[in-house]
Amino acid sequence: MGVTLTISNDLAKRLDALAKTTHQPKSSLISQAIEEFLTIQEWHIQAIKEGIEAADKGDVVSHEEALTELKQWNKRAS
Questions:
Q1: Nearest 10 degrees: Cα torsion 12, 14, 15, 21
Q2: What is the residue range of 43's domain?
Q3: Biggest alpha carbon distance in the chain?
Q4: Tens digits of per-residue pLDDT, 8-50?
Q5: Domain assignment of residue 67, yes or no
Q6: Is residue 66, in this structure, part of any structural domain at all?
Q7: The whole model's pTM is what?
Q8: How many domains does the chain have?
């Protein structure tokens, strides 16, 4: 399936530079970028759906419980 794409001059220049630096065709870089974007968006939408389903079932925590958990994460990261 073919697709026509119009991008800004700035984006085209950045793509040209990256293609030259990485020795990859622009079409390959564009395809990779679209693949990564779609993967992230699909994951994000699925996570939202799962969150809505959990909330509909009442499987939620209080604000205070969430803050306590976040503080624990912060301590572990330090």
A1: 150
A2: 9-77
A3: 53
A4: 999 999 999 999 999 999 999 999 999 999 999 999 999 999 9
A5: yes
A6: yes
A7: 0.71
A8: 1
